[in-house]
Amino acid sequence: MSCPRKHAFTLIELLVSLALSGMLIVLLNSQITSSFFTDAKIKDQLEYRLEIESIFDHLSADITSASRQPDGHKSVIIRSAEDKLSIHVKRFGLSTISQQLHGVEVVWKFDPSGITRSIKSEEGEYHRLLSNRELKSQIQRVSPDIIRLILKTSRFSKSKMFAI
Predict the structure, then answer these.
(1) In the 3-class helix/strand/coil scheme, how is 36-76 assigned residue by residue?
(2) What is the C-alpha to C-alpha distance for residues 46 and 17, in angstroms, rounded to an integer?
(3) CB under 8 A, 24+ apart: contacts of 53-60
(4) 3-class DSSP assignment, residue 15
(5) Using the 8-state DSSP alphabet, how is residue 125 labeled?
(6) CA distance 66 to 74
(7) pLDDT at position 91, please?
(8) pLDDT band, very low/low/confident/very high, at 1 (cuts 50, 70, 90)
(9) Within 10 Å of residue 148's Cβ, how many Cβ atoms?
(10) 110 has pLDDT over 70
(11) Is the pLDDT of residue 66 over 80?
């Protein structure tokens, strides 16, 4: 009496399927790891763009609140040398100590090492590092009363126009 033969996979078929499954797992793992790194880079870039937009908003507020000179122009002085740019804005500000109104000079510095904002008043000087990322800055005169500030990093370029 003979037993009927049962159908099953051979040892070679099982080894080939295990090898293919292992290769698929390695490929999926590398794709998932790659997507995590890409996601982190994109998140970092978006956060820096938001940081630059916030800096532009603060600079715009300073320029908007600049005091007027006798000729009607705002007290905004732009100095540019090689890879450094500074914007000096004179305006009135309320003292945090004496609650008196007095003159304030706000100095924005853009250089390869980052962006700083300094406030000089009769009560003292305050410096704040707003960004320590490497960047290039450039000013373009669109018209006598309008400038465009361009900030470039290794990944993107952002610009904004200001009425002075």
Answers:
(1) HHHHHHHHHHHHHHHHHHHHHHHHHHHHHCECECCCCCECE
(2) 43
(3) 53/158, 55/115, 55/130, 55/131, 56/149, 56/158, 56/160, 58/117, 58/130, 59/87, 59/108, 59/149, 59/162, 60/160, 60/162
(4) helix
(5) E
(6) 6
(7) 87
(8) low
(9) 13
(10) yes
(11) yes
- The two tokens of residue 52 are 């630059």
Query: Can you give the pTM of this predicted structure?
Result: 0.71
What average pLDDT does the chain have? Answer: 88
| C-alpha torsion angle, residues 94, 95, 97, 98 (rounded to 10) | -80
Are the C-beta atoms of residues 109 and 121 closer than 8 Å to each other?
no
The neighbour count for residue 151, using CB atoms within 10 Å, is 21
Query: Of all helices (H) and strands (E), which one includes residue 146?
Result: strand 146-152
Sheet holding 124-131, edge to edge: 76-81, 84-94, 101-111, 114-121, 124-131
